[in-house]
Amino acid sequence: MERTFQKNPLKKRTVPVADSDRINQLAEPKHRVNLDEEFSRELIEKKPHIKYKASKRIQSLAKPKHVVPKKIDRDPTSDLSKSITKVSPSALTYQASRRIMELARPK
Questions:
Q1: 49: which DSSP letter?
Q2: Burial class (CB in 10 A: 0-12, 13-18, 19+), 86
Q3: For residue 21, what are the CA distances in angstroms to 18, 24, 26, 27?
Q4: Is 4 helix (H, G, I), strand (E, B) or coil?
Q5: Nearest to 82 by CA among 96, 93, 92, 67
Q6: Torsions phi, psi of 60, nearest 5?
């Protein structure tokens, strides 16, 4: 059996249909009126509708926090061998495995 193909075979559902007036209307570019000058004048002349004043809460949130200095910063003569934070005894006596020691070495 030999098959012969047409150049542009169309399915029955894709048969070309005449363009409607609405499709032609949508295909045309929009007609724009030059409103740039009027629009820019309106933006300059407009005033805000609501006069805003920050509440006491917003003002307090805007102030920076007072940071408590670290123990070392407060007393530079203190023993630096003592830790500022508490470390658990198990962490102090931990023996690292070979794999962890390998990973800890720089390449």
A1: S
A2: exposed
A3: 10, 5, 9, 10
A4: coil
A5: 92
A6: -70, -35
pLDDT for residue 96: 92
CA distance 83 to 72: 10
* pLDDT mean by block of 10 residues, the chain; 107 residues: 61 70 86 65 66 88 76 58 73 91 90
| Residue 98: C-alpha distances to residues 26, 52, 90, 105 (Å) | 74, 65, 19, 11
76: left (phi over 0), alpha (psi -120 to 50) or beta: alpha
Whether 70 and 82 have beta carbons less than 8 Å apart is answered as no
User: Tokens for 100?
Assistant: 């962890």
d(CA 79, CA 75): 9
